């Protein structure tokens, strides 16, 4: 294409933008984009108002960025603007970097711009994640500040992107700032050699200073306007900061710190729950608790094996390989060295190489190592952090080597040589990225997998009844983001009755306000006290019950299985209800029993003689007392009304088909509910329970069956 005519810089930039748009369309249509973390799904839900009301408050995103999102949601509420805005920023950032490279070097810069889009397609457009987005936006800001012609529009654009990057994820902004520091350091060395400090301070320092003033000024302003001392947001910020200090680093083991834990009033079960991120107990897991554990926890020795592992992993990462290849091309002229004093021995056209660019080229790699050393001291570096840092390293290193590559090879890349070089680079990049760019074409989209469809169906079903709320444990919640397209907006008020027992949003003002709608405050404790709460968990059920038993003395913790939806079991946890009264007006009967699920559960069915009007909004329990030991237990049941999804009704619903039948599914009992038990069906209305006179017709006494 370029061999027939010499395209202008502007024309090459336009061709690059067209290519960029085509590749975005390819990613969206064929590579099955998805959210890269649970946090992403939660942030998108908050942004869309799916947690009950729109808010400008996010724990990680700056409130100013939330106002930007709010503007777009107000403009057209039906679209998922969280994804669209993130996509727009990714497109603008990659385009800004590519166009800057093309402006500096029409041929080599154009090839590198194309390769950058290919390398960024999967990590940015397919696995959408705000930490990586912030890293890319920040990197683009520094490229405009340091590598453009320093025109006002470039500088203002660069400053704006730096501020936006910090608003999306300040930690990512910090990491990329460390990697980009090499640009400023190289310019400082150049200014020192030329004694041109005035130009250095005005042209090279002032834009960065301006950006940092805006970044930290916006943070200070947010602390005043949003995190007002004494507000719910300020409390949550303190809580989450303490949570990060403990859980992100890792909770120390019980055996090593048993005395310290017991001094805080924590049991081994409490510590196991902390290690599993089961932290939704407002009374026990507070910011003060987290800080107290951090205070006695000893720093672990530096994990050198982690560093070794990650150096091996880095050497195989396509983003790192592409970065290293460009740097290797930059180093090739040093192979011409024939004398020890190599600055003299170099080809005259290359005598200044390195003296100008060594710092800017190699600093990103040193910064990458330094960032990993910092994180390894805390925990194994997260894949998202690895990708964000590698992307920043690639962009900074390629930007630094570009001028010398243009000087050395730019004029030689003409005609067929240019086309061949470009095609070879694209093929090489595509081969390195075949797992991300080619194989997804043959794979099923994540949103269509069995696990995703199951989650989608579950959420659609349980979000319809706002009278009952559902809680997930952290393990089962890892699949939430898979069930939805990242371009699909969740309906308003969609997640007002769905919570998770672990994660950064546990104590957020929105979660608290949604719980208060059910007259609850602590999510974990409320699972035992509310007959409107359903736990979706197979893995953490025992831990939860042990946790409760250690807090509330004298309670006999029980659970019952209410429903099963796809692969997910829905449980209710029950505790002793005080002040239960006898109801001598209404009667009930237990008349059917059988086992279920390979005899893991005993099922009991019966009926009550109350009218639908009397039962409206009430829940049902099975009350038992052993005549031998006096031990009492209570199990929650369901009304045998089924909604359109086949779920039994936890609260009696007059809009469904009327019934007087009830069903209890409880873990296998050691012996039957026969004459050794006093048994009652109990109707609960709010905080009051009424035992009905109940005939136990479960067994035929004449046959003993």
Automatic annotation (TrEMBL):
Keyword Kinase among UniProt keywords: no
Keyword Membrane included in the entry's annotation: yes
Transmembrane feature ranges: 12-31, 43-69, 81-101, 108-124, 130-147, 176-193, 310-337, 358-375, 381-405, 417-438
Signal peptide per UniProt: none
Domain of life from the UniProt record: Bacteria
Keywords: Membrane, Transmembrane, Transmembrane helix
Protein name: Glycosyltransferase RgtA/B/C/D-like domain-containing protein
